[in-house]
């Protein structure tokens, strides 16, 4: 009897291994094949002032965090930390106008296909989440901004390594996330822009800003997640904090209108302030990879809020990350502020952006204080939170002197920048 049981177990294990091997072979084939049959979409850049402005809105909130990141605004590519390390090591591409290392030699249609399908100029798939349902006008606007002559897109020779997927990563991209090899044959319209439009808010959340992907559990695409209202926007997507100098995992929060587990108690004004400043009504810091939507206008933010309020509340509680969530608590003691305002999360020794503090070296404390309160006024597109509403000028000045002390620079009054 025991021999029969062991034989049955052996056969079962063999079948599982054969199945896994077959699946891995299929996944590898899908990731490595040439997608020369995916037609180029009939989309060209929108170079109108309105189109370029809209393109910057979308690019800063969606593309910039991956292709620039780390407090930078030039999209030269680099290491990404948005996916669990178990899936592999990911690098975003250089998308400056460099003819060799960037996308300067790409046509508008090739860039559009990359956005929509994740298929590059050489007809190969790149492991990035595509935006198959982004409207033609928005895709054209993004390309218009990229080709507007903005200095951020000046040619750069930097070339990040290619992404390396682990076996689970290959399976995830090939099957769970899926590869969009459906060429766009018909124009995709953008819904009418209106603050009270659930449809426009849904479009922004699922097809542009991709809230649905990051704030819903699992590795499926946004399109698939939209088909599961029972878990949609309930949080739980896993991010790895270790590459950022943190500890453990960060799970995306629940943003359904649940009053106990989500954002059901947030007012529209509180929602807008959180999205733009990066600080919640409770004073918690919205840490990376959550972007700041500083370029989104009031109508867009109101439409997002309208859509989120239309969702069914989900009371699933998402646990906080290891070490808790940084909470903005202004204090007369700058060392405490450096920790409580979340500065230490990014700039403390051993953290991902420790070296960025050196950019303040040699500057006047008054200038650094203004940067702390309104960083976006100095560096448009930066992902630093805006502390103006929380930190007054005196506390900002004290924190600035503390930061300058950490750089080894002078903290004397009136230092020339």
From TrEMBL:
Keywords, sorted A to Z: Heme, Iron, Metal-binding
Annotated ranges, domain Cytochrome c: 50-150, 329-407
Presence of the UniProt keyword Heme in the record: yes
GO molecular function, one term: electron transfer activity
PROSITE patterns: CYTC
Matching InterPro entries: Cyt_c-like_dom, Cyt_c-like_dom_sf, Cytochrome_c-type_DH
PANTHER family according to UniProt: BLL4482 PROTEIN (PTHR35008:SF4), BLL4482 PROTEIN-RELATED (PTHR35008)
Protein name, per record: Cytochrome c domain-containing protein
């Amino acid at each position: 009897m025991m021999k029969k049981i062991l034989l049955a177990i052996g056969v079962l294990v063999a079948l599982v291994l054969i199945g896994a091997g077959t699946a891995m072979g299929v996944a590898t084939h899908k990731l490595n094949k040439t997608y020369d049959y995916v037609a180029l979409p009939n989309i060209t850049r929108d170079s109108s002032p309105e189109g370029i402005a809209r393109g910057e809105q979308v690019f800063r909130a969606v593309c910039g965090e991956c292709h620039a990141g780390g407090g930078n605004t030039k999209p030269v590519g680099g290491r990404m930390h948005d996916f669990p390390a178990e899936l592999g090591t990911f690098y975003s591409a250089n998308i400056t106008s460099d003819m060799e290392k960037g996308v300067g030699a790409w046509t508008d249609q090739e860039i559009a296909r990359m956005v929509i399908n994740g298929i590059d100029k050489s007809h190969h798939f790149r492991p990035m989440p595509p935006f198959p349902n982004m409207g033609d006008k928005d895709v054209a606007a993004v390309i218009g901004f990229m080709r507007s002559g903005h200095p951020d897109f000046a040619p750069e020779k930097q070339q990040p390594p290619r992404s390396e997927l682990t076996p689970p990563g290959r399976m995830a991209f090939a099957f769970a996330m899926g590869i969009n090899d459906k060429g766009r044959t018909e124009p995709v319209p953008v819904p009418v822009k209106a603050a009270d439009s659930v449809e426009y808010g849904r479009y922004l959340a699922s097809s542009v800003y991709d809230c649905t992907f990051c704030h819903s559990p699992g590795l499926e695409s946004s399109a698939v997640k939209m088909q599961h209202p029972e878990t949609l926007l309930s949080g739980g997507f896993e991010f790895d904090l270790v590459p950022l100098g943190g500890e453990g995992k960060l799970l995306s929060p629940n943003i359904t209108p649940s009053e106990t587990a989500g954002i059901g108690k947030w007012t529209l004004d509180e929602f807008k302030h959180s999205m733009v400043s990066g600080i919640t009504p409770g004073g918690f810091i919205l840490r990376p990879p959550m972007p700041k939507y500083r370029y989104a206008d009031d109508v867009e933010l109101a439409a997002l809020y309208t859509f989120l309020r239309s969702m069914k509340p989900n009371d699933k509680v998402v646990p906080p990350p290891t070490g808790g969530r940084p909470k903005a608590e202004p204090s007369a003691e700058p060392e405490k502020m450096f920790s409580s305002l979340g500065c230490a999360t990014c700039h403390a020794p051993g953290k991902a952006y420790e070296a960025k503090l050196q950019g303040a070296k040699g500057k006047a404390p008054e200038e650094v204080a203004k940067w702390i309160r309104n960083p976006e006024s100095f560096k448009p597109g930066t992902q630093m939170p805006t502390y103006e509403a929380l930190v007054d000028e005196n506390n900002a000045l004290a924190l600035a002197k503390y930061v300058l002390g950490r750089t080894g620079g002078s903290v004397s009054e009136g230092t020339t920048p």
